[in-house]
Amino acid sequence: MSTDTAHPDTTGRTPASPPAGNRPPRSLGDGAFAALLMLPALAMLAAIVVYPLVASLVTAFFEQSLVEPGRTFVGLHNITDLLGGDFWRLLRQTLVFTVGATIAPFLVGLALALALNTRIRGRATLRGLLLIPWLVPSVVVSFLWMWIFNANYGLANGALEALGLIDAPQAWLAGPGTAMTAVIVAKTWASFPWIMVMLLAGLQTVPLELHEAAETDGAGAVQRFFAVTLPHLRGIIGIVLLLELIWNFQHFDLIYVMTGGGPAGATETFATAVYETAFQGFDLGRAGALGLLWMVLLLGMVAIYVRRSEREGQL
Amino acid sequence: MSSNLSRRDMFRLVGLGAGAVGFGGLAACAPSADGPDKDTAKSATNFSFASWSLADNASKAKIEELMSGYGSKAGITVNGVPLAYNNYLNQLTLQVRGGQFSGAAQMDIAWLAGLAALGKLRDLGDVAKDAGYTEAALTSGQVDGKQVGLPWTTAAIGLIANRDLMQKAGITTAPATIADFEAALRALKGTGAIPYAASTKVAQLKDILIWMQTFGSPLLDGDKVTVGDDPSVEAVTWYKKLYDEKLIAPDVERVDARTLFAQGKTAMYDDAIVGRDFVVKGSPDKSIADKLDPIARPVKNAGDKPRAVQWGHAVVVVEGEGANTATDFAKWLTSDEQTVLGYFKDLSLPPTTTAALASEQVKTDQFTSQFSERITATATPNPFWKYPQYAQMETAISEQVQAVLVGKTKPADAMREAGRAVQALIK
Predict the structure, then answer these.
(1) Does the ipTM surpass 0.90?
(2) How far is A259 from chain B (nearest CA, A)?
(3) Which of A63, A150, A285, B29 has the lowest tally of Cβ within 10 angstroms?
(4) Chain A residues within 8 A of B408 when measuring between CB atoms
(5) Which of A104, A307, A284, A202 is nearest to B97 (CA)?
């Protein structure tokens, strides 16, 4: 290292800058150094997340087609048009799917977690087998259930007819009254294993002594469940339900493959509507407006999740 | 190994890494050491070929054989881009629009205007001149007089019946009028089969348009959309009646209809000539090919001309890397006599050149000649095809028809709404 700067200037002149190659290294604070290290990741995030997100949200304020060049600024027209039209129907249907596809697998997952937390024979094998639906890719799940619910050659009609529960084949996916239920059933099958695993992990942290003490005090199985088990699971149940709500609120693939949002829009949610509007209707402006409104709602849910997670000390 | 790197050392390493990446990137952009740009020199280069036939098991092997056949002759690789038919147009549109696709692409003739609107399709007029295509075939590949596609196959979409099931129901002649047709469907219902596997899912409900024309709606008068007029409402009301009486079935699109037909579970369905191959290959009945009977669409009043919608595939060339070789490939694929006759032999798709159509192989194929005579002979293009927004128009009408079928709206209201939506798309 050069030692030139250690000598005081005795000439009375302003000391000349040392040659560039001899400059001392400037110290970099920890904060700046950390920021520098994060820069590549931040640049990547900006390029592949922030820019596309902002660009697509900006289209909400334009009339813009996917196949024609150019766009026209229309202000809030796309948003007000949606709020005066399809938005509330989409919100209602999205909420029906979200709540249905959260509660149903939760109940199935909880029941199975409780069963697998007992000393039943073949417990380990059952745990493995019950995870299979979760491992199947979503598109495969969709095709599987499309086949089960097909009106003309579906397994569901065949089984129900054989059992004498229906007289004629039902158009499960083609009926506005049954299509959403069919989609929720399929989603329940795909989602319950994850919930089951999470709850099972929670159940295994419940101290056995508490159960024994409650039993000694004369509490039955149901009382012990509500007085001992449930309070212990409250935290994990909250997180599981909230995450499922967020995921289902933005769920796309299973609905799109099974029904395409039909029949006659009966299973259309924000996710499928944005895709249909942009890539079938080629209307990027309207799709952007839908995306903007959808994101605002989703951010509210995410905010609740973050606050809750912080409170639970999980972040 | 010591891990005591100073910050300066780390920056040096990062700098070295970045330099290496940058150098690598620049090296990749440098001209090939093999010689000048091959495309400019008009020698063969690798290119991509997008095709929905590549995504379909029935035709995949043949298309791959054609690609590798051309590739080995030219000493290049043709990279297949398989995309499913129902999502083909929007996927290809996105890729072309984003500059991610160049090369050759299979196209439904109904979609040409939409893709041409992106302004990236090569004008193939000069290429098409001496290739021997029929005049009708050439027209099917044009948009506003510009030859944007080379015709690969042309025919029509019509009704295909199972002769055995029809005879079982006591139907010995093809129903000529709508009234005859309804009577035939009622007779077929008694056999336990789905009488007519008409499209009832949005993806293929465009089939309703030809019924609207059969009932007398022109669909378009100049630039004025006539969907919503009395004949179109009458057609949808009739379709709904068939649905309610279970003469047509819910939950059906082309693929379902082919499957049901191949399994002998329906007596009739709408398809292009390409359907024969799917049905024959997918049927457990080894003699199904002999039972296929293409029939003219019934007319509203005796003496009317049967309606059929034109159908066909073209090959377009998207400008960019490999476009010159892709153009040569498109011409070879669609006009080389040996190639198109081989395609016809394996997939039953009629060629588009005068010479190939005159060949014994095509002329003596009974199904093809019956299909041409009864269906293709009166086929016309859909009047909405000329608009780049055709796909949106089709969806707008299909969604309203489906709403009628499931009882969410009345035919008159639905068709008025569909007409309004389609009109709004015409600028």
Answers:
(1) no
(2) 9
(3) B29
(4) 176, 264
(5) A284
